[in-house]
């Protein structure tokens, strides 16, 4: 392999001239922050084997504003020296020599250490910053990888940036609409191949989830424009479950994923059909082209599926009934904090809830109570808009490398100049808290005090 001359730079190390090059535009995975920054090095004259260096950070032009670093000549020179000490022979033909750089927390590096000390490792790059979580600390290069964990503990969920309730709902819906325009180009949901889906049901799940979430974002924006944005909170529930279930199935082997996915799919299908049978009876079902013999076979299938699910319950150890509970799925997927935060809120929006009913009633010392307080409805609309775009981004990460096989494509003309202003605008608006302080009769200056109406 020979590097393209366009875009490459010259560097001299130990009196030997080399050319190094960083890809002009990020790949699809690099743009999303799923794969890290890389660069390549070869001899300037009569090149042989190429040096491929992988950094522990995203590219500076990634679309999601992940923690990044730039490549400077001093780093390139260090990598060349390190690779040669490991046996890289740049003047001889052969396979590429790979150098993967890792990092460790800055606090582990002595203050007196100078210069970057890098090592090869098979470990993955440092963790990415999710749209819901706090940013992870940066790190310094390390000399010895044996004492370095390949992932940092997730930062505790924080409320930093919860200033979204001060931004007007009109400003927020405009920012989300701009995000929708760019996201529909970045993640274009198309058709899948039947054979590929049959081999991996997760591809279908990814396709359905991304299509539904983008439609939910559009619907939430339209509802907000019509002063009904508070109803969009129900969309958050489906998006939340997309994130945790896709993350969970992505953590399984293909064989494990296929078996559990098929059983859950059969359970849902047979349960719905048999519930319809129980409600309308066999005579009506026959009019709907469901013969009793077919329905009896469906009942037998459901019993078989239940037995297999109980076997898997013993294998995985999930608590409760025959189906894995959402909280257990979230914990296995590493999304328990997000689940605990959003599940209760979305449940109250979907189901009868005494707490939610009382939450909607706003009173005044004069004795009047209303259930359509405009400010509170706008707060719920802002909360839904904020969560929906963040969960959509989280779903990209949960889908990971399976997206290309899921019928997902991207507009090649899209670059960081299109994406960064949109995300920066949304991030500047801040997060919107689930519970507004006014619901607890609180204001910045303390508990609210009403004047005596008399």
UniProtKB/TrEMBL annotation:
Name the domain of life: Bacteria
Tell me the segments the record calls region Disordered: 96-155
Concerning InterPro entries, the annotation shows: DUF5677 (IPR043733)
Basic and acidic residues bias spans: 97-106, 137-150
* Pfam families given in the database record: DUF5677 (PF18928)
Name-wise, this protein is Uncharacterized protein
Species classification: Bacteria, Bacillati, Actinomycetota, Actinomycetes, Streptosporangiales
């Amino acid at each position: 392999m020979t590097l393209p001359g366009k875009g490459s730079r010259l560097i001299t190390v130990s009196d030997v001239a080399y050319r190094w090059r960083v890809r002009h535009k990020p790949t699809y995975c690099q743009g999303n922050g799923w794969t890290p920054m890389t660069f390549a090095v070869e001899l300037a004259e009569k090149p042989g084997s190429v040096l491929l260096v992988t950094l522990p950070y995203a590219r500076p032009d990634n679309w999601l504003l992940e923690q990044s670093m730039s490549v400077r000549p001093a780093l390139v020179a260090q990598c060349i020296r390190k690779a040669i000490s490991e046996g890289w022979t740049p003047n001889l033909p052969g396979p590429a020599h790979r150098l993967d750089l890792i990092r460790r927390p800055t606090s582990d590096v002595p203050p007196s250490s100078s210069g970057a000390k890098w090592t090869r490792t098979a470990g993955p790059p440092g963790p990415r910053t999710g749209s819901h979580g706090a940013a992870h600390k940066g790190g310094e290069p390390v000399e010895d990888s044996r004492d370095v964990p390949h992932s940092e503990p997730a930062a505790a969920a924080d409320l930093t940036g919860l200033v979204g309730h001060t931004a007007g709902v009109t400003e927020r819906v405009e920012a989300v609409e701009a995000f929708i325009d760019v996201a529909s180009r970045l993640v274009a949901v198309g058709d899948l191949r039947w054979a590929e889906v049959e081999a991996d049901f997760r591809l279908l799940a990814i396709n359905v989830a991304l299509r539904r979430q983008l439609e939910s974002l559009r619907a939430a924006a339209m509802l907000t424009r019509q002063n009904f944005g508070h109803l969009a909170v129900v969309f958050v529930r489906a998006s939340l479950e997309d994130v945790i279930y896709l993350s969970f199935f992505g953590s399984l082997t293909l064989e494990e994923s296929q078996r559990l996915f098929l059983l859950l799919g059969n359970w849902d299908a047979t349960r719905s059909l048999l519930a319809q049978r129980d409600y309308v009876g066999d005579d009506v079902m026959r009019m709907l082209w469901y013969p009793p013999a077919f329905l009896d076979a469906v009942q037998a299938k459901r019993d078989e599926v239940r037995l297999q699910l109980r076997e898997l319950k013993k294998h995985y150890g999930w608590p409760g009934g025959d189906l894995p509970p959402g909280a257990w799925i979230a914990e296995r997927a590493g999304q328990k904090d997000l689940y605990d935060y959003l599940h209760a809120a979305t449940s109250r929006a979907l189901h009868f809830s005494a707490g939610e009913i009382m939450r909607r009633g706003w009173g005044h010392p004069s004795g009047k109570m209303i259930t359509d307080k405009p400010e509170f409805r706008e707060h719920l609309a802002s909360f839904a808009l904020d969560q929906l775009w963040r969960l959509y981004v989280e779903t990209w990460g949960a889908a990971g490398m399976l997206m290309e096989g899921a019928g997902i494509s991207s507009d090649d003309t899209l670059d960081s100049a299109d994406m960064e202003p949109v995300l920066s605008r949304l991030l500047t608006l801040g997060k919107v808290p689930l519970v507004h302080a006014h619901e607890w009769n609180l204001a910045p200056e303390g508990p609210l005090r009403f004047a005596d109406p008399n």
